[in-house]
User: Which sequence fits this backbone?
């Protein structure tokens, strides 16, 4: 058992607010430079850049972090939830559900930015035409149930933020919502984050929510794990078999 560093909320150039240089390969490379052990690729309402991130990690070999497939789903309440999975197929199944319920209309790149599907060689494959910045019509409870039905972890995003969070949109974390963890942004002190839980026994995480390379690994989770794997991460958020969240780190 040792401490593993994990940043579980990272965007690429597929997210409309991500820069052109935030390619899947560059994100994986930056995470490796910083010594992160586990990362999750969680673009807005899409997992189309996960496969090239996995390929980039494969090419890096032993130096690479474990790359977990994921999405940042916008619920009907306009709250953001991380959906993190142990395999690409589950993430793509979740993506298909999200695409089927996503707000209609095309992306306007002049307003929201381009949505670049890239390959592991930093080449543009295509531009995703969907309105990925928009919301789905899926209630938060349904999103959490679907994530769990696919074997994933459901994490409430940046609950300290006044917009696009459960607390910002609903005024609370619904007590009946079966979350696996709650995330605070890099701006929020852990002590304040624990106050926001209002006594709920949920693991508190912090992630960079990076949309730029310089922000990757700005904060991280210190996890007691036997090895870097999705199964070990799941045990850690459940606090089982000696695994757990040992602390929250920050880059000065």
Assistant:
């Amino acid at each position: 058992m040792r401490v593993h560093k994990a940043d579980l909320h990272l965007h690429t150039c597929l997210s409309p607010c991500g820069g052109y240089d935030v390619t899947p390969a560059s994100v994986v490379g930056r995470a490796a430079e910083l010594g992160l052990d586990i990362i999750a690729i969680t673009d807005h309402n899409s997992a189309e850049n996960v496969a090239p991130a996995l390929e980039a990690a494969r090419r890096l070999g032993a130096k690479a972090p474990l790359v977990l497939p994921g999405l940042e789903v916008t619920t009907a309440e306009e709250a953001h939830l991380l959906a993190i999975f142990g395999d690409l197929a589950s993430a793509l199944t979740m993506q298909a559900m999200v695409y089927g319920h996503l707000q209609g209309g095309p992306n306007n790149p002049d307003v929201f930015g381009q949505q670049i599907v890239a390959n592991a060689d930093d080449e543009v494959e295509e531009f995703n035409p969907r309105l990925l910045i928009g919301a789905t019509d899926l209630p938060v409870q349904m999103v959490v149930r679907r994530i769990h039905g696919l074997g994933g972890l459901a994490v409430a995003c940046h609950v300290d933020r006044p917009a696009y969070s459960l607390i910002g949109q609903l005024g609370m974390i619904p007590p009946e919502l079966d979350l696996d963890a709650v995330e605070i942004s890099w701006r929020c002190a852990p002590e304040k984050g624990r106050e926001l839980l209002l006594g709920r026994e949920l693991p508190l995480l912090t992630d960079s929510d990076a949309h730029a390379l310089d922000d990757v690994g700005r904060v991280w989770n210190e996890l007691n794990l036997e090895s870097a794997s999705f199964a070990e991460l799941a045990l850690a958020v459940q606090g089982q078999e000696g695994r757990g969240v040992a602390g929250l780190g920050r880059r000065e």
